[in-house]
Amino acid sequence: MKELRFRRWKAAVAIGAAVIGAITTAPSAASAVERQHGDLDVRVEVGVDGVGSVDLHAERYAPTGRVRGVQVLVPGTTYDHHYFDLGGGVVSQARQAARDGWLVIALDRVGTGGSSKPPAASVTTAVQVASLDHFVDEVDRLYRGLPIVLVGHSYGSVVAEGVAAVSDKVDALVVTGFLYRRTAPSFEGFPELTPAATDPVLGGKGLPADYLTTAPNSREFFYHLPNANPATVAADERTKSTTTAAEVPGFAQEFTGQAFAKAVRVPVLVVVGEREYLYQGNDPAAFEPDQRSAFAAAPSVRAEVVPNAGHDLALHRDAPFTTALIDRWASSAVA
Length: 335
Description:
Elements lengths: L4 H21 L11 E12 L2 E11 L7 E6 L18 H7 L2 E7 L16 H18 L5 E6 L1 H10 L7 E5 L16 E3 L16 E3 L15 H9 L9 H10 L1 H5 L4 E6 L10 H11 L6 E6 L12 H15 L2
Parallel strand pairs: 3-4, 3-5, 5-6, 6-9, 9-10
Antiparallel strand pairs: 1-2, 2-4, 7-8
Helix pairs in contact: 3-4
GO molecular function: hydrolase activity
Organism: Umezawaea endophytica
Keywords: Hydrolase, Signal
């Protein structure tokens, strides 16, 4: 952490009103934002795997009331910022967190949404971590004095862990849809990944060769359907994004090797669904001890299982409960 927390908290309270005004009325160095829900576009250096620099796109949400800090939301494989805000009146983790007092920045990772799309072979975990690390530096520059919490989902949790392991700008880490366990999980039923160029949703977007997405109408796998609104599942399909074969090894390596987790030295919250495919078959009694073991250098580790929820915690009917849990924990972690 870059400063003692009580100093950062005092700074957050002191500049909170100014932050809200800056988002809603004044241009920043990265983007002019005139709406509560506005764009943030930042060019960052990368310098790994043949990628010199990239443009990262994110959506910003101004906080309501006292500003508690910044949440940077990092989506998983085949998702972009829409995972955190599908629009159309369905559940929105981003909007709820803003109502809870957080300045929310929902990111499009490299290769997704409005961010740069390098050749598929260069969309690696190393590129994702390096680009997010520099993005966090820019967020810190824009909102200096506010604590920064990284909130990842699935593969986005792996990327967030990689940044939390090396950055002095991150104050707390939330891992969702990802966990550590002693026994191998089952991936049975995981959606087939098919070329994005031939997908009914993504085929006309001119994506680079070898970008992948889930096969049409296969995203129900990520849900516990009795606890999911069909309109949400349909919106998920309409807004789905991409992945690449080059990203897959990073997920597997962290799941088994725990290199990022071992280097994290900020408070950690791990949240998974009871029907999470990675959790299925795990010993419930071992869940929290396994997370504490993985994040052994973290000053505190809390682990939570959400009943009746699947992989996409932010998109189930009880998502408001999960988001409230995250927001309360984050507030205490940076206090």
